[in-house]
Amino acid sequence: MEPDCALELPAGLGGRQGERLRVPLTLGADVTAVRVAVSGTRSDAVEGESLRLTVPYGTTLGTVVLESTCDGKTTQHDVNLTVQPLRWTRAAEWTGAGGPSGREYFATWLDAEHDRVLLYGGFVYQPQQFTPNHELWAYSLSDARWSQLPLSGDAPASAAGRVVPQPGGGALYFGGLDDALSATPYVLKQLTVDEASARWSADFPAATGRGEYQPSFFYDARRDRYLSVCGGSDGVDGMYHCEVRELRLTGGVATWAPVAVEGLAPGGRNGHAWAYDEATDRLVLFGGDRGGSTLGDTWVLDLSSAVPKWTCLFERSEAAQRRRNMGYVLDTRAHRLLVWGGTPDGATAVEGVQALDLTPGAEQWYQVDAENAPPARTSAGGVYDAERNRALLGFGNSALGIYVDWWALEL
Fold it and tell me: Domains of the chain, with CATH numbers?
């Protein structure tokens, strides 16, 4: 009786660069092993009876080679790939009061309940650059229009702080610079947002709190806490640090505490790209600035163990030029960090889009091909729109001027 060595899979597949595909494999009863022999990205793998495939970058055609073992023999199987570039489209156009004015170091976050993006504050350019701003704007994802939300209560005593959505609604504002741009006061406030208005409704003083500028600040849902990691603070010797601090809110009281970590920590910084990757329970950060020194290293902080551990993924990467003040989003569907723009020297902006594949053990930076690209710039911001599988990015500046725009990178 002949052994059953069949392996059935599509003759050809296709998708956009970096797209994640899960391809079923039909295996003969006597096939003992299947592996990826040649692939376009490091994250391709056979898992059970399916092929996990990431559409490669930097090509229009690709081939994935599988090898199956059956009856003591190895057989090669080729899967052809058609690769499409990503594409930029202008998401919205406006002038004057039709939307936010040009700005930098602002906060954006997704308000899924109302199908919109919220944008708060930052620094505007009139009457001069670094003028603090405390406006709140809403961008409707259904009709691509901006509207300014009336905002009541006492605004934060700082500008360009971090904003994090809270469980059950609302948001938490933390950190920033004072109006004179000379100090990092301790500011922690709650922002309550309704469909048509918003209000600053609570302050959270804390004896152990300190101000931060541009930290990684996020809600750790698994442990019901907020974490502030790295940043710039006048409460730290040398200003720049990569300490890990935990915030817990109980009954209107804020309690801050240092978090012990393992491994060599990154050098202090702000202006870095970062994201909390909930799927792998890791914070990832890239680049930034330390007192005028621009960085290009990539790190992860693994929160899954009892003692979080730092690991340096890359001291540098040819595909991800060192920079600070870039636009960035976490693409959860394709499990990658997307980085756009930023500056290596305060005078020029990095061209193009770069992607960091976040598959554990297969992390890699890639240069992304994208059509109809908007002008490169620094100090842009954005948000990931999972429902429509796109990144929304815009604003910022370059040597060519100030940008008042909103672009969609279709993923």
Answer: 7-84 (2.60.40.10)
